[in-house]
Every structure is written in C-alpha cells, then in structure tokens.
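Task card 7
Instruction: Convert sequence to structure tokens.
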Amino acid sequence: MKRILSLLLLLCALPAVAAVKVLATVPEWGALAREIGGERVDVMVATTAMQDPHRIEARPSLIARARNADLIVAAGAELEIGWLPLLLRESGNDRVQPGQPGYLEAASVVQLRDVPQTVDRSMGDVHAAGDPHLHLDPRNILLVAAALSERLARIDPAGARVYRDKLDHFTERWRAAMIRWEAEGASLKGCSFLQVHRSFGYLAHWLGMDVRGELEPKPGIEPGSAHLSNIVASQQNAPAAMILRAAYQSETAGKWVSEHTGIPLVTLPFTVGGTPQATDLFSLFDDTLARLKSAVKQP
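Output:
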C-alpha cells in the first residue's frame, strides 16, 4: 500500500506536458489543429465565423498571443495580407515568422485554383496567388492535416507518435465521411449558383457545381443597384438554381436579387461556427450539404 501511495505521489509531482501554443488565423484551421493535436495543443483562433477574414484588426490581444505562440497556422494565399504581416512583425516572435517551423500556410500544401494571369488595382481585392478558400474542398483538408501533423512533430518531438496516431485516426474518419458526402452531393452535380463573393469555387469544383458569377462587380466591392439590376436581367431566361452567401457576409444584395428573381438565397456556414450546426469540420460539411440539397428541393 505504501509503495502504491509513493508511486501516486511521484506521478503527481511530475511536471505536466507543456501544451504547444497554436494560433490559427481562421476557424477551420483551429478546428483541424484540435483534431490533430488533441490535448497536447492549446489552440486560439484569431477570427470567428462571423468575421470577414480579409479585414481583421491586429489588436493587442492578438499580438500578445502571437508573441507566445509556438505555431501559427494561416490560410495563406494573401487571405490575411491586411493584418497578419503586422501581427507577426509586432509579435517579435522569431519562431513563428514565415520560413520558420512555427509558421504554416495551408495554401503552401495544396493546388490553388483561380490563379489570375495578371493583377492590378482596378480588379478589386484579387488574390494574386489564387483562391485562398481552399478548405471547402475536403480533399484539401487531408493535405493540410498531414502537413500540420508533421509540423507539430517538429516543434514537439516528444509528441510525434501522438500526432501521427491522431492523423491516422482523423484520416480514416474523414475518408469515410467523404464517401458519404459525395454520395449525398451527387444530386448537386451540374447545379448552378450565383455567389455574393468569390467564396465557393473549391466547393463547386468538388461537387461538380456550376458557378454563374458573383454579385460583387469586383472582389471586395459592394454591388450598386444598377449592377444588381443587370444581374436580375441576366437571370430571366436561364436562372441559377440558388444564390450562395457565407454566414459572415451581408444578405442585402443576395436578398434583393432573390426577391426580384425568385432564386432562393442560401446561407452556408462557410467555416466552423458559421451556423449552430457547424460545430466542427465534420458537421461543417454535413450542414453545408444539407442546406444545398434543401435549396434544390424548393419549388
């Protein structure tokens, strides 16, 4: 009995494993870090699903978190160009600067879509590297998960086995979910949509949907009444099946076009937390598909 008690006291005296401090720029990569890191990571997300990730203030609390971070996980492809460079500079943290093990961009490990041939200011908020909203193709999630597991193992070698095991478990569950999602989404193939902003290109590519265009005249530019009237006119003969908006985007333009065309306006979570149902990466896709299929069934 004394021997057991002594062993328990010794175990209690051992220092706890220090969590790897992860700062994710957007909710999807924060959710993935929790899947791959488990209890070995302490994850904070710089934005919420109800914020436009292009336009975030590098507030002091975020700078403080970046200062103490072991790993920053960003979307990349200039999604955070308006605030992340300032955050990194002001943090003074050499570990998380681009090119260091403590900095990982999701865009660096996938094939980006819609890379423009030329870019200038007249084109609006165009991403020169390509579309950064890559998480809406679930095949990309697996690529980023593998890169994240490897990066966590470099930062925390003692946890390397944990990260590999969690990656294997996540991959098995994710592939099974993808089979189910692709079967559920088969009826959406060829379905056309308008979108408020250029947000759903990867989703369309994965499901075989047809992007008819954006309500914004240029990326990041609010549409005026004349522009929206032209869109309404263009939908008279062969209307799109739906209008898509991300939960954080204003519904004003989409609602106006919907009222004047009869095309349903569908709000998608876009990322984890965008709707009450989208609580993690798996339910993000569950809810997205459910909302798309519901719109198609509408008369």
